[in-house]
């Protein structure tokens, strides 16, 4: 099928790449001229595992073209809207880009178009789109509007797209449902050559859930808000564990064994970030407010999350005392591993708080340094975890990149001013860190004193 995607952010690019990979002809539009030039030249504007190779493959096969919104509207019967819906200052989602696309479709398209909103939008946006097309569309335009929320995690979006648990479509006609069924058929039946796994792990085929548009839109906001709620919940349990001497890792394990609770999203830490949870929780609160429902539970979720920054700084301060003039090594800037995205990353807020206290920040992230420089121009960026640790009074781990679990502790011990690790993600083993002569402090679990003195470390590491 000929399909257009408007917006080449990580959702738009993943959708484009994966739909082309399963055999459709894709046209992807991007309005930022510089980004479009890059894409046409084969340069990726963002880091996302597997995306570059899938895009390279489908372009080689002649299944993907990049270009303008106008061409995207002209070329395809099915148009996915994947433009940004950033937060306004009052927490509402800014829908101006969605409206811009609707205006362009109304003005330009003739014949049938299936307009699919994939961007995260407030409930009833589909209804507004329909109204817009009916008021502004030419008499030649015939259309359906559908909602098809995405559940793609940055860092694993290609895998999530090709091997989803569910595909949700909100439709109000059998034609729209049948077209979306055709688009997703290879994924529903899991019939395609997987670009990630040579042999895909055995899994159940995804559920294809067709429902009404309002419900589909709510499924997205309710899912993200629920996951955010789980994180804030376990973060409070972690605080409690620290006071009463329990281990949050054990508590989360015990809770997660109940299938009604599930073990996912029970990792405590410095809070949730990224371009989805913080803005979606805010937008969901606003949607509820405007509908006359007081969703104060979510306000508490947000408040707990915002409190994680000050709480973490306090944890650090209680160890190193005065922060002014102290070198602090920051390991990880991205809002989570396997992405270069630093939008709404708690790590960025922690670094800002450290700078405000007069600390000297030496930071390293395997992917996110370029993007971090735009928001944190005045810190020292380092080439690796060791360089960051040079002369540090404390190493704070803020993103759980795999490489931090594999550091050479002997090498590290020689570089730091004081062997102290504060693990904001519970990514490291307290026993391993302590056995290597470092003082370990995690989240919601007992800290571990170094089991070797520095002179012993020096001799062991000889
Ligand atoms: C999230 C959802 O997981 C996707 O299903 C959804 O499609 C996407 O938002 C979106 O709306 O586009 P994403 O923001 O990429 O995906 O990242 P997550 O893996 O969900 O993590 C979000 C934040 O929560 C991160 O800062 C992460 O570190 C934090 N987190 C996650 C925790 O603190 N603890 C956990 O147990 C899990």
What does this structure look like?
The relative contact order is 0.08. This protein has 18 helices and 14 strands. The strands form 3 sheets. It has a 6-stranded parallel sheet, sandwiched between helices. The chain has a 6-stranded parallel sheet with strand order 11-10-9-12-13-14. Strands 7-8 form a two-stranded parallel ribbon. The mean pLDDT is 95. With 462 residues, the protein is α/β, with parallel strands linked by helices. β12, α16 and β13 form a beta-alpha-beta unit. The structure holds uridine-5'-diphosphate-glucuronic acid. The site of uridine-5'-diphosphate-glucuronic acid has 20 residues, from α9.
Strand adjacency order, main sheet: 3-2-1-4-5-6
- What percentage of amino acids are in beta strands? 5-15%
Rg over CA atoms, rounded to whole Å, is 24 Å
Give the CA-CA distance, first to last residue: 64 Å
Bound molecules: uridine-5'-diphosphate-glucuronic acid
| Main sheet: strands, sense, barrel | 6 strands, parallel
What does this entry show, briefly?
With 462 residues, the protein is an alpha/beta fold. It contains 18 helices and 14 strands.
């Amino acid at each position: 099928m000929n399909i257009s995607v408007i917006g080449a952010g990580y959702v738009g690019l993943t959708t484009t790449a994966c739909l082309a990979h399963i055999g459709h002809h894709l046209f992807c539009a991007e309005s930022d001229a510089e980004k479009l030039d890059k894409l046409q030249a084969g340069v990726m504007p963002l880091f996302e595992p597997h995306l570059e190779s899938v895009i390279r493959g489908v372009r080689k096969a002649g299944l993907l073209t990049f270009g303008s919104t106008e061409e995207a509207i002209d070329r395809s019967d099915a148009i996915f809207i994947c433009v940004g819906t950033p937060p306004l200052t009052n927490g509402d989602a800014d829908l101006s880009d969605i409206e811009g696309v609707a205006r362009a479709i109304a003005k330009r398209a003739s014949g049938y178009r299936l307009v699919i909103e994939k961007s995260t939008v407030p409930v009833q946006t589909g209804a507004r789109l329909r109204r817009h097309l009916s008021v502004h569309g030419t008499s030649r335009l015939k259309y359906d509007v559908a909602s098809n929320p995405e559940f793609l995690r940055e860092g694993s979006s290609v895998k999530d797209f090709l091997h989803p648990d569910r595909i949700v479509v909100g439709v109000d006609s059998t034609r729209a449902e049948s077209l979306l069924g055709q688009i997703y058929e290879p994924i529903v039946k899991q019939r395609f050559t997987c670009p990630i796994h040579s042999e895909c792990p055995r899994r159940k085929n995804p559920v294809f859930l067709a429902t009404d548009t309002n419900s589909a839109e709510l499924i997205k906001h309710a899912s993200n808000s629920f996951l955010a709620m789980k994180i804030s919940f376990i973060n409070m349990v972690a605080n409690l564990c620290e006071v009463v001497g329990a281990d949050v890792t054990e508590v989360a394990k015990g809770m997660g064994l109940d299938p009604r609770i599930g073990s996912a999203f029970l990792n405590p830490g410095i809070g949730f970030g990224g371009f989805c949870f913080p803005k979606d929780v805010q937008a969901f609160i606003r949607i509820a407010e405007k509908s006359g429902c007081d969703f104060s539970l979510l306000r508490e979720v947000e408040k707990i999350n915002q409190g994680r920054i000050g709480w973490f700084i306090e944890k650090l301060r209680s160890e190193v005392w005065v922060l002014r003039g102290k070198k602090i090594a920051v390991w990880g800037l991205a809002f989570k591993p396997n992405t270069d995205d630093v939008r709404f990353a708690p790590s960025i807020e922690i670094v800002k708080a450290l700078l405000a206290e007069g600390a000297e920040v030496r930071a390293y992230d395997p992917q996110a340094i370029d993007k971090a420089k735009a928001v944190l121009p005045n810190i020292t960026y380092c080439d690796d975890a060791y360089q960051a640790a040079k002369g540090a009074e404390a190493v704070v781990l803020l993103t759980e990149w795999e490489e931090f679990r594999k550091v050479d502790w002997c090498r590290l011990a020689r570089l730091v001013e004081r062997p102290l690790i504060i693990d904001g993600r519970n990514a490291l083993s307290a026993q391993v860190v302590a056995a290597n002569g470092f003082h370990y402090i995690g989240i919601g679990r007992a800290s571990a004193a170094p089991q070797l003195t520095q002179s012993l470390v020096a001799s062991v590491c000889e």
